[in-house]
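hey can u check if this looks right to u? its 259 residues, i copy pasted from the old doc so theres a chance i mangled smth
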Amino acid sequence: MSDPVLYRQNGGVVSIVLNRPDRLNAIDPGLAEAFLTAAERAVADIAARVVIIKGEGRAFMAGGDLAYFREAGAEAPAAAWRLITPLHRAISLLAESPLITIAELHGAVAGGGLSLALSTDLAVCADTARFDMAYLKVAASPDCSGSWSLVRHLGLRRAMGVALLGQTLSASEALALGLVNSVFPADLLSAEVEAIADRLCRGPREAIAATKRLLRAAGDKPLEEQLETEAEAFVAAAGSRDFREALAAFFERRPPQFE
């Protein structure tokens, strides 16, 4: 049997690849546990800068494996915990880490797949991608941070519409709503995501990590507390080698060479 999640690394870029293409990468316990293991490995790797999350085959992810829940029968609640616990741990680890996460999306991005995509720092999709919260279609509510992320991306009213009305969104509609950052032709998607990852890897590592941390905390802090946190982060950056290099490069009219 193939590994349910593949782990690939090229310099500072880690790719976590969902690898159940025959099931549209639907989540079962093996995939959930393997995804957590991959997230833990990436977070522990001091060379890693960017994590790309993508899916093999025709889809990014079609959500939970309904056949798994059907087989569980009356034990479905316990079966749900076996999926949710490692997935939620992995999502928290990646969100709290300095790594920049990028969702590379194509085909079906549904249910837990959409929630996972929304949890990342950046999301880029193929023009053929289709987005669907899908939970109500199986009489379930969101998991994998879907409810938290959807409100923050769209605001309450639009989030309610996407979650409750069950419409499937095209790539262009997802872009217009702010669910993704960019849309590319399907045959160019991987190259474009790699270019974004390379750009981030060449950037100032600590400043990028601080920016991620500030933006993720901004919605939960009062202004005065956020201002204090911003000040502390900027002062720390001003003492860094990268800051000195950026200033030198600016006045010398050359590209900076960050560590």
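The longest strand covers residues 5-10.
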